[in-house]
C-alpha cells in the first residue's frame, strides 16, 4: 500500500511539473507571432540602443544586429555570461543593464515599462530575429537584358549619362 501511495505522489508531482512547464504562454507562439514579437523588439532596440550598440560600436563585441554575437558565451571559467541568455531574461546582461532593477541603460532615460515588457517577452521567446526576405537570384544575362531594355526606352540625349551598378 505504501508503494502505491508513493507512486501516486510521484506521478502527481511529475504531472504538476509538466503542467507548470506548459503554462509558459510564449512556448506556443506561432511562427507569425514570433516574427511579430521580433519586429516589436527590434523597434525598441533601434529606438534606445542601436546608435551606440550597432552603428557606432561603442562596446567591442556588442553588436545588437548580430544574433550569434548576442548569444555567444563570454568570460572565463569562473564566470560565463552572454548578452542574451535564451528564455531567461533575468540571466541576460541586456536585462540586467537595460531592464533590471539597477538598470543604467539607456543612459538618457529609462525605457517605458511597455517596451521593457516587449524585450522581456522577446528574450523568453528565444530572441527571434526578423526573417529577411530572400531575393531571387538574378543571372548576368538577366541583368544585361534589363540594362538593354532600359537603354532602349531612354531618350537618346540621356543615354550617355546613365550608369548601372550591380552587386
Measured as a percent range, the helix fraction is 40-55%
> Hey, roughly how much beta strand do the residues contain?
under 5%
Largest sheet: 2 strands, antiparallel
Average residue-wise pLDDT: 79
Gyration radius, to the nearest Å? 25 Å
Describe this structure in words.
This protein has 167 residues and is mostly helical. It is 50% helix and 2% strand. It has seven helices and two strands. It has helices spanning 2-22, 31-48, 50-55, 67-71, 93-99, 113-124, 140-153; strands at residues 74-75, 80-81. A two-stranded antiparallel ribbon has the order 1-2. Strand 1 and strand 2 form a beta hairpin. Helix 2 (31-48) packs across helix 6. The longest helix has 21 residues, at 2-22. The radius of gyration is 25 Å and the shape is elongated. The protein starts with a helix and ends in a 14-residue tail after the last helix.
Element layout with pairings:
Elements: H1 2-22, H2 31-48, H3 50-55, H4 67-71, E1 74-75, E2 80-81, H5 93-99, H6 113-124, H7 140-153
Helix pairs in contact: 2-6
Key phrases:
mainly alpha, two-stranded antiparallel sheet, 167 residues, 50% helix
What would you say about this model in short?
With 167 residues, the chain is an all-alpha fold. The chain has helices at residues 2-22, 31-48, 50-55, 67-71, 93-99, 113-124, 140-153; strands at 74-75, 80-81.
